[in-house]
Amino acid sequence: MTVEHLWRGRFDNAELNALHARGFGYEPGDADVWGRVNDHSLGWVCARRGDELVGFVNVVWDGGVHAFVLDTVTDPRHQRSGIGTALVRLAAERAGEAGCRWLHVDFEAHMDAFYLRACGFAPTAAGLIAL
């Protein structure tokens, strides 16, 4: 079955919370992600295989030229099939169309191959304060 990638695709909170739990390895929560992305995001990409949500990425921005990808996740049953790369590719295209000049991402070291090779991000120095 084909996977469709949808900019600002519809999802319900329960299915996205369940996908995040499977993808990131924690118990499902009850976050109002739909409300959050509609209030704070430039957009998001949903990957659907039929009716099943199998991938998601959120694109937040500063209202100007900087956009940031957050919460990139592919269902573990479908990883390494190109879904995540296509999520980020569409996110980058739409951020560029919105006038953004830079797409940022931060990630843990084990995700280097995905973000730097598969998605084409360049390594850069950055800083972080854990709050």
Let me know the number of strands.
5
Question: What letter string, H or E per element, gives the SSE order?
Answer: EHHEEEHEH
Mean pLDDT: 96
Helix content: 25-40%
Q: Any idea what the radius of gyration is? A: 14 Å
Sum up the overall morphology in one term.
globular
Q: How far is the N terminus from the C terminus?
A: 42 Å
Strand content: 25-35%
Tell me the quaternary state.
Answer: single chain
Number of helices: 4
For the biggest β-sheet, the strand order reads: 1-2-3-4-5
The major sheet is characterized as: 5 strands, mixed
Low-confidence blocks of residues: none
Derived structural class? alpha+beta
Structural write-up:
By secondary structure, this protein is an alpha+beta fold. Helix content is 32%, strand content 27%. The mean pLDDT is 96.
Question: TL;DR?
Answer:
The chain is α+β, with helices and mostly antiparallel strands and 131 residues long. Helix content is 32%, strand content 27%. It contains 4 helices and 5 strands.
What are the salient characteristics of this protein?
five-stranded mixed sheet; 32% helix; single chain; 131 residues; 4 helices
Compile the SSE list and pairings.
Blueprint: E1 3-7, H1 13-24, H2 33-40, E2 41-49, E3 52-61, E4 66-74, H3 83-97, E5 102-104, H4 112-118
Parallel strand pairs: 4-5
Antiparallel strand pairs: 1-2, 2-3, 3-4
